[in-house]
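Can't attach files on this board, so I'm pasting raw text. These are the components:
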Amino acid sequence: MKLMIFLFSLIVLSVAPFIGETPLQIGKIFDPNAMEHLLFWDLRLPRVGAAFFSGAILALGGMVFQAVFRNSLTTPFTLGVSSGATLFTAIGIVFLPTSLIALSSLFSFAGAFSTVLLLFLFARSLRAEQTNSLLLIGIALSFFYSAALMVVYYLSDLEQSHSIIRFTMGSLNVVRVQKVYPLIAAALILLGVVSRYKKELKLILTSYENAFLKGIEIKKITLILLLVVSLSVGVSVSIVGPIGFIGLVIPHIIRLVYKKSSEKLIIAVFYYGGVFLVLCDLIGRNLGAVSEVPIGVVTSFIGGPFFIYIILKRRRTDG
Amino acid sequence: MKLHVDNITTSYLRDISFELENENVVVLGSNGAGKTTLSKVIVGLETHDNVIYDGERVSELGAARRSEALNFIPSKLEVFDEYIDVEEFLGLSLLNGSDQSTMESVMKRLGIEHLKNSSCKAISSGESQMVLFASGLLHNAALTIFDEPTANLDSDKKIKVYETLKEHPGWKMVITHDLNLAYQLGYRILYLQQGELIYDGNCEAFFASENLERLFGNSIKRVEGYFMVNYR
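---
Top answer:
Structure tokens for the assembled complex are below.
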């Protein structure tokens, strides 16, 4: 099973840049004068890269949130972090002068970050076992943000509201490799930090009390982990938009396949998160005849039913 | 090593003070008397400035130093990740000189080797209590507090825990409401009632019949050196 999935993932990664509206031939991509060269190096490859590293960030970020908040339904998405980023980006799109529109990615990051700070504040007044309450707070925040987003829509002109809609659906249409660099950096920082705290993560996966008693500086470490996740999710949202459900679906599937505790699955979750988004993008790009299906739509169509499945299954095991 | 609990008052505890110097102790008290709260305060799980370990406030001990000094074994095993098995869980307690071979001998001594590869979430409450007990021995802190170590155990396992407590050289605080266990251990006794420390003294004086009657009325009956609940 594991080998099959791995082989399949290799196939997905290697064919992804070649399949699309215009099929590419391997020979021509190394010819600097061919149109295929531009298409491959400036469009397809950055896009696959953006998909891979965003997927990796969202999946690993989801796994870390689930461990730290001790609830299998918490992800940066379900806690409202992505909605915060989206709202702030929309504010950027509407209120920034056209010349400064590039700054909207900073807004997105600020949105993600301030939401995490808010969650921290709320979490401090909750007891450790009240993770369901935190989840409800996340949902309330998401509602609040979508209402605020409506206000921003209302204030925007036609062109602006179109950009907002496109942004909220998520898009991997990145042009040029340079745009992918921040994503790669954020993904590798996340991977590095989480791997560095592997042992601490394992203790957190037993219980907070146990981790505390075994000599872990529990507050410091959860803070570092949550900050690095929100930082990388902020970067990801600012570049490809909010893409839901990966942080929920991938850690669960990987756990079911590998049957190991999460701290042993850091690399696997990172890698398959990336592959999953590349695959979803491949489907989205090639499904619609006229134009591509937005990536957020594809992942939500797959993730929504899965989310419900997890809740039903949880109810069975938890009584 | 010395533990000084100085005038602790929380929402469950009232003016608790005592001193221990490398001396094993049993904490007795009915449900809700504040036994578990007291132990959480001692190990720092609940922060309080008036707990002094070897001249330092527990609330100010560094994380690593604290794990050498104090450990608390709860009465229920809590593990979030269902794929952590017993061996991995115990592996996290290999501190203060314990290693893989200590772990194997402790598991053997307690008769839990067969659980090695079972998920911590799939074992019975008695088995998980044995696993927790094993983790306390392996962690080997200077002072270990065992919260109700025999509460869910069948008689064979109770005897095993009792024997291991007796032979384990470390400094221990045992919380229980099993009077027979307390009597057999013979340690100094602290008796809590509704958050107040109402007895602090040796085992013999605690189990003298006047004292028992004073604390328990006629709900406990002594029969040939054993203490029975008097159902009448």
